[in-house]
Design a protein that fits this description.
alpha+beta, FAD/NAD(P)-binding domain, Polyamine Oxidase, Chain A, domain 2, four-stranded mixed beta sheet, 11 helices, about 15% strand, globular, binds flavin-adenine dinucleotide
């Protein structure tokens, strides 16, 4: 990775990470089995992290973004435990779907399925996937520089399946294990939730094409497909799951994908562009606007604080 990073930075123009890896001869001369392990490593270390395939990821930007101080933590009883603290004292209306934001006049009008809302200023935290999809109409249309940044930045594709089994049939001591698929792009990571929760649960995680394939299937078919990966690893006699949960981030109208990554030709400048106030009335926030910590909860949180400060400055 260090070599491809150095090679990428030295180039005059950006290119897909796959091309840079080929240019430096990464993986050349490996046996088919070792090549499969290397592909798994790329999948786990870069593609899962960026939520997209190497062939779309920028050689200049693939490992930028900062780490946050402190240890990694897993919220055993769910991430939503932190929300009541953050939401205390706020007037939050759930199930209000925004369809249009008109900022042409002195008063902004936000249309929802439960009637219009009016405001002097508006902080827009729609995900990048929703902004890309265009399901929320802006009047006037967003500035060209803003839409160019929205178009350029990539929004990842990911899929998770939670499988609860009657009992643990895998090594209960490991944090996770991986499925290095024979077909590139069909690999998966399995988090061993039994280690953290004591319940016989695996959390399967994959991205891009395999994510889209599983998402397009019925839950029964997707489960059969994932179980065939597990049976390849653990043998035909492992039990069927007793309960399964799946995600739909790629097709949900409220997400349109997972989180932001840098496509070839996009950069931090695009995220900075998204933080610029629009007409001193509209302010964008969300993980996609945070160049230091994109694709993270803390990035989204900090971007909201930053946008609120900017909004307050413009309110004076
Ligand atoms: C698979 C996966 C793994 C991740 N792992 C981690 C991790 O380990 N650590 C980490 O820090 N981060 C992780 N993240 C990223 C993190 O979840 C996101 O970066 C963060 O949630 C983004 O917050 P946000 O407020 O920008 O967007 P969101 O959380 O997507 O919030 C946007 C909100 O807008 C709402 N909305 C959309 N359209 C409309 C509409 N038309 N009208 C009204 N409301 C609308 C949505 O319902 C949603 O509530 C992960 C994300 C995924 C998908």
């Amino acid at each position: 990775m260090r070599r491809v990073r150095r090679y990428g930075y030295r180039r005059d123009s950006d290119q897909p990470l796959t091309d840079s890896l080929a240019d430096i001869g990464a993986g050349q001369g490996l046996s088919a089995a070792d090549r499969r392990i290397l592909d798994w490593h790329y999948f786990w270390d870069i593609e899962l992290d960026r939520s997209f395939a190497l062939s779309q990821i920028s050689s200049w930007q693939f490992d930028t973004g900062q780490s946050y101080r402190g240890p990694d933590l897993l919220f055993r009883d769910g991430y939503d435990q932190i929300l009541p603290g953050l939401a205390a004292g706020l007037d939050i209306r759930l199930d209000h779907v925004v369809s249009a934001i008109d900022y042409s006049g002195d008063t902004i009008v936000v249309q929802t399925n439960d009637g219009p809302f009016q405001a002097e200023r508006c902080l827009v935290t729609l995900p990048l996937g929703v902004l890309k999809g265009g399901s929320v109409a802006f009047t006037p249309a967003l500035p060209t520089k803003t839409t160019a940044a929205i178009d350029k930045l990539g929004f990842g594709a990911g899929y998770k399946m939670v499988l609860q089994f009657p009992q643990v049939f895998w090594d209960q001591a490991v944090h996770f294990f991986g499925y290095a698929a024979a077909i590139r792009g069909e690999s998966a990571e399995f988090l061993n939730m039994a280690r953290y929760t004591g319940h016989p649960v695996l959390l399967m995680n994959t991205m891009q094409d395999y994510a889209a394939t599983l998402e397009s299937m019925t839950k029964t078919d997707a489960t059969a497909r994932v179980m065939s990966d597990l049976r390849n690893m653990f043998g035909p006699s492992i039990p069927d799951p007793v309960a399964v949960l799946t995600t739909d981030w790629g097709v949900s109208p409220y997400t349109g994908g997972t989180y932001t990554y840098w496509t070839v030709g996009s950069s931090h400048r695009d995220q900075k562009q998204l933080t610029r106030p629009i007409d001193r009335k509209l302010f964008l926030a969300g993980e996609h606007t945070m160049d230091r910590f994109p694709g993270t909860v803390h990035g989204a949180y900090l971007s909201g604080l930053k946008a609120a400060r900017t909004l307050r400055r413009h309110a004076r």
